[in-house]
Specification:
This protein folds into three domains: about 5-60 and about 115-290, no CATH class; about 295-370; about 380-495, 2-Layer Sandwich (Alpha-Beta Plaits). By secondary structure, it is α+β, with helices and mostly antiparallel strands. The chain is extended and about 100 Å long. It contains twelve helices and 17 strands. The longest helix has about 35 residues, at about 290-325. The chain is about 35% helix and about 25% strand. The strands form four sheets. A five-stranded mixed beta sheet has the order 3-2-1-4-8, with helices on both faces. A five-stranded mixed beta sheet has the order 11-10-9-12-13. Strands 14-15-17-16 form a four-stranded antiparallel beta sheet, covered by helices on one side. Helix 5 links the parallel strand 12 and strand 13 (about 245-250). The chain starts with a strand and ends with a strand. Helix 1 runs parallel beside helix 3 and helix 4 packs across helix 5.
């Protein structure tokens, strides 16, 4: 995208770079303070182009998991359970399909990742949303590093890059698929060469400890930096039978990726920012709430170009009609014009007959989204009433007097049930037959009925018992009654099993 705002976020720093016609028009630096965030907000007042937020943070976690390959609603529910298990405390999370296994059930090998400290990202995103900046997405440096290693033949490759504001980034790829990434912050005054020499051996041992590097395999190391620094590194790195080095000059890499930038040192920030604006990965950390203004921006552009096409078509039609009018068969043109006028009048009549609606498009979208969510999470009554019927078949002395149910989102979530569904709360009112004055047998029978309901997946609580056995009750008053057992009421709570 030729006109855009590129943002690079490190732990205590935000780099903002405004691009106009593919060239840098303005660059600003902001620290993680309230005053600088206010300055950033002022800077955004004149920006209305899309923005890309690229993060380079220590607090980014990666987990490799193998899960059953499912699609649709089952896939969404499975991924959400994994997110709740791994990254409950952050909204910046994603799951990437690496590959499907070739044998057995052909399970999916997934890479789950997240920015685990949302407090570093949220304040800047809030400023962007407050200024209604169309945010394309939230990405990370490891996510967009794959193009830098696509031309390397190794199946076990460690990519080393440098960002002067965040530190040394080491990203490991297996068969050109991202597996894990580490960021080592740099002390003040420490150089790129020093960091590489210190950290490379540690990272090699780290990969071995995680069994990511198979035993006996050579680790290929691609180091991206300034040519002067790379020459020095070649003399400092130890010669090892376990590692093989590949030194890539930043200026050569920029030319290969068709990025016009002046390379002054080993800082690869411009490579990553330009690569992001040209080729965004399919997955990202931003959700629909973060990118809603970009969706509206795309909609406006679509409507604009559609209008341009309609205007161009109308002009073309007018020119054609004028040309035909000068020909001898212009009578047929007059017929076409009359037909067109009739169609336009009919269209106007239909449009005027439609009801007027002043509802904003965003409200309509919210209603449709909510309706779809309710439809997806709605449960047919037979799903939670049929198990009740099965339980009653086993206990014929339980007679139903009244049954009612309602949906509730406030009921506690029982174990092994799906929290994303609202609870179905059933009120069961009934009485017991054929027990005469045998109170103990009647109460035991009702207890067994409750246990049968719990086995069917209900959470059961007693609202009214058939006999008042509380300290305030008086059993002697019931001794001579024809039917001492009164009606009872149960509260049943049901959610789909997980």
């Amino acid at each position: 995208m030729k006109n855009c705002l590129l943002l690079l976020l490190s732990t205590n720093h935000l780099h903002a770079q405004l691009m106009v016609a593919g060239e840098i028009a303005e660059q600003r630096e902001f620290s993680d303070t309230a005053n600088d965030r206010a300055d950033f907000s002022d800077f955004l007042r004149t920006v209305r182009c899309p923005a890309y937020l690229l993060t380079d943070l220590i607090e980014e976690d990666f987990r490799l998991e193998t899960i059953p390959y499912v699609i649709g609603k089952s896939r969404r529910a499975l991924l959400q359970r994994k997110f709740d298990q791994f990254y409950r405390g952050t909204p910046f999370q994603q799951a990437t399909l690496l590959q499907r296994q070739k044998t057995g059930r052909r399970d999916a090998e997934m890479l789950f990742s997240a920015l685990t400290n949302p407090g570093l990202v949220t304040p800047w995103v809030d400023v962007l949303l407050a200024q209604k900046i169309p945010l394309v997405g939230i990405y990370s440096v490891p996510q967009i590093s794959a193009p830098l290693v696509q031309d390397h033949p190794s199946n076990h490759l460690l990519l080393i890059t440098w960002n002067k504001f965040s530190g040394l980034r080491q990203t490991y790829f297996s068969a050109h698929r991202l597996q894990i990434s580490r960021l080592t912050p740099v002390s003040k005054g420490q150089y790129f060469q020093d960091s590489v020499a210190e950290e490379l051996g540690r990272t090699y041992q780290y990969l071995k400890s995680l069994s990511l590097l198979p035993s006996g395999r050579i680790l290929d190391v691609r180091i991206v930096g300034n040519n002067h620094d790379l020459i020095e590194l070649q003399t400092r790195l130890p010669r090892s039978a376990d590692m093989r080095y590949d030194f890539v000059d930043l200026s050569v890499l920029a030319k290969h990726l068709h990025i016009a930038t002046q390379v002054q040192d080993s800082d690869a920030s411009q490579i990553f920012l330009r690569q992001l604006s040209a080729h965004q990965p399919k997955s990202q950390y931003g959700n629909a709430e973060h990118t809603r203004y970009f969706a509206l921006w795309q909609l406006r552009r679509g409507l604009f170009w559609t209008s341009c096409a309609l205007v161009a078509g109308s002009l073309l039609w007018a020119l054609q009609a004028t040309f035909l009018q000068d020909r001898p068969d212009h009578a047929s043109v007059e017929d076409i014009k009359r037909q067109t006028l009739g169609i336009q009048n009919e269209t106007r009549r239909i449009r005027e007959s439609l009801p007027k609606a002043d509802v904003p498009a965003t409200d309509v979208k919210a209603v449709v989204t909510t309706l779809r969510t309710l439809q997806q999470r709605s449960v047919p009554p037979e799903q939670f009433l049929v198990p009740l019927s099965h339980a009653m078949d086993k206990y014929p002395k339980v007679q139903l007097d009244e049954l009612a149910w309602q949906t509730s989102a406030t009921e506690p979530v029982a174990a092994n049930t799906m929290a994303e569904y609202s609870a179905q709360v059933i009120t069961f009112k009934g009485h017991l037959d054929d027990f005469s004055s045998n109170y103990r047998l009647a109460l035991d029978y009702l207890d067994h009925f409750q246990h049968a309901l719990e086995e069917q997946g209900y959470s059961v609580s007693v609202s009214n018992r058939p006999l008042d056995v509380s300290p305030q009750g008086n059993l002697s008053d019931l001794h001579d009654a024809d039917n001492p057992l009164r009606g009872f009421a149960l509260k049943l709570v049901w959610r789909p099993a997980s």
